[in-house]
């Protein structure tokens, strides 16, 4: 209780000081004058960026409102016109996120995702090790089929809580901590390997394009990101198993719950079959982009729209309106606009040059620079609430860092996006699935810090080895 009150007090304080602090920081940068090597437009862009950055971190106003604020303030400051400031809200990545949310709504409404979860758990078994493995495998499969980490958590959490309750672990137990952390952490780590699995991934692709890099397709991301993400997902499962060894439990109770849950769903309905066919068609078109040349967003929106058609579809607009997180869409749109503004005015490159020089990175190898970027981003999760805001705030600077080092943007931005989207493990507020799981009342803040700090070490090692070998073989750099 004391821990909860302490966290709540910190949140209240953070929100109270957020707006005045944002104003003070912006004014301090403005009145400091235009630094050498930076254009007046770039200076004004940094003034705006600094204020929005503080609002993102403190959440003094809703994140969506902070993102929308970029448009009128940017236009009033003369950084761009209203039209140019709104361009981020019309970016392909923004509408890929909308389409992904709609697809997720269909999976949840028809209960197809729930059926897949029960099927996996029934095949894996019901010892503590097997249950957590089943949740891990469910996260891997659902990451392809449910393009929303929050929706996947919402699907799996009731199942996990039912298992915990049935096995006689109503309060806090090592099994409960293990299972719930496994749910949210493996959900995050596998997301780094699939373009549509979490919002920061398409945002990353958008920033690579804005910085003059190549277009990263669904299959490009899969080939580059899935192997390290899959390996890290199983490492996460194993580490949590060792950190929180479960008490002995009655396997028969767990198996009975899973079988009853599966039986309650009955036979697959026509709506489930239609949803499955549309999903498989979307995934097939994503996987064959090399030959079809169809854009990722185009395919996603086409599949999403089919879900509304008479005789074919399974949802209506009321369902979609409830399931689409418009806050995330606004954060993405505003963040893309802010990032493009920083890159166009030269502000991102100027900030990156400052970082490059102050950290003594001049002359460092590409692999060394990549390691520094990934390590810094891993631990910056401590100060960010949500991965989307983190991606939109920091990826433009990473792109500028690549430019300062004379590298194609994808070499730094792509791994940075994977780290941001896949490794919000350090605090309960780092991402919405963490918050949802923490809200069960069976976890403490310290559980996230303890497990997340340990897991960041193998994450750095795995991605470093991947960069030194696998990514080189694929020609990333």
From TrEMBL:
It holds the Pfam family Na_sulph_symp. The keyword Electron transport does not apply. One of its GO terms (molecular function) is organic anion transmembrane transporter activity. The chain crosses the membrane at residues 17-34, 46-77, 89-108, 151-168, 175-201, 221-244, 271-288, 294-312, 324-343, 355-377, 382-405, 411-436, 448-471. It is a multi-pass membrane protein. One of its GO terms (cellular component) is plasma membrane. Its main location: membrane. GO terms for biological process: carboxylic acid transmembrane transport. InterPro entries: CitT-rel, SLC13A/DASS. Keywords: Membrane, Transmembrane, Transmembrane helix. It is found in: Membrane. The keyword Transmembrane helix applies. Belongs to the SLC13A/DASS transporter (TC 2.A.47) family. DIT1 subfamily. This is Anion transporter. The lineage of its organism: Bacteria, Pseudomonadati, Pseudomonadota, Alphaproteobacteria, Rhodospirillales.
């Amino acid at each position: 209780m004391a821990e909860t009150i302490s966290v709540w007090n910190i949140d209240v304080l953070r929100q109270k000081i957020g707006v005045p602090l944002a104003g003070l920081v912006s004014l301090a940068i403005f009145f400091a004058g235009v630094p050498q090597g930076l254009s007046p437009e770039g200076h004004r862009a940094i003034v705006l960026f600094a204020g929005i950055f503080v609002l993102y971190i403190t959440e003094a106003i809703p994140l969506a409102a902070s993102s929308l604020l970029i448009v009128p303030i940017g236009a009033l400051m003369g950084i761009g016109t209203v039209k140019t400031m709104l361009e981020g809200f019309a970016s392909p990545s923004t509408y890929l996120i909308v389409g992904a949310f709609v697809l997720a709504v269909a999976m949840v409404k028809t209960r197809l995702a729930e059926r897949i979860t029960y099927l996996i758990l029934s095949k894996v078994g019901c010892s503590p090790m097997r249950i957590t493995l089943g949740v891990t495998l469910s996260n891997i499969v659902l990451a392809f089929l449910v393009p929303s980490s929050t929706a996947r958590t919402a699907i799996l959490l009731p199942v996990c809580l039912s298992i915990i309750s049935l096995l006689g672990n109503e309060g806090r137990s090592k099994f409960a901590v293990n299972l719930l952390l496994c749910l949210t952490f493996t959900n995050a780590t596998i997301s780094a390997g699939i373009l549509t699995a979490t919002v920061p991934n398409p945002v990353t692709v958008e920033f690579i394009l804005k910085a003059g890099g190549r277009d990263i397709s669904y299959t490009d991301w899969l080939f580059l990101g899935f192997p390290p993400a899959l390996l890290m997902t199983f490492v996460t499962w194993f580490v949590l198993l060792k950190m929180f060894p479960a008490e002995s439990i009655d396997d028969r109770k767990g198996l009975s719950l899973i079988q009853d849950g599966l039986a309650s769903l009955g036979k697959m309905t026509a709506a489930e079959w239609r949803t499955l066919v549309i999903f498989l068609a979307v995934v097939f078109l994503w996987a064959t982009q090399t030959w079809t040349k169809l854009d990722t967003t185009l395919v996603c929106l086409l599949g999403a729209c089919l879900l509304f058609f008479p005789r074919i579809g399974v949802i209506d607009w009321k369902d979609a309106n409830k399931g689409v997180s418009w806050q995330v869409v606004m954060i993405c749109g505003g963040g893309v606009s802010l990032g493009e503004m920083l890159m166009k005015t030269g502000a991102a490159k100027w900030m990156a040059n400052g970082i490059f020089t102050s950290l003594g990175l001049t002359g460092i190898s590409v692999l060394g620079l990549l390691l520094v970027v990934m390590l810094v981003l891993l631990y910056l999760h401590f100060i960010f609430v949500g991965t989307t805001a983190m991606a939109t705030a920091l990826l433009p600077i990473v792109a500028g860092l690549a430019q300062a080092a004379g590298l194609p943007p994808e070499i730094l931005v792509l791994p940075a996006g994977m780290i941001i989207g896949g490794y919000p493990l350090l605090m309960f507020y780092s991402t919405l699935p963490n918050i949802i799981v923490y809200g069960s009342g069976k976890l403490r803040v310290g559980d996230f810090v303890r497990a997340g700090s340990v897991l960041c070490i193998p994450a750095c090692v795995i991605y470093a080895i991947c960069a030194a070998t696998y990514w080189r073989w694929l020609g990333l750099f």
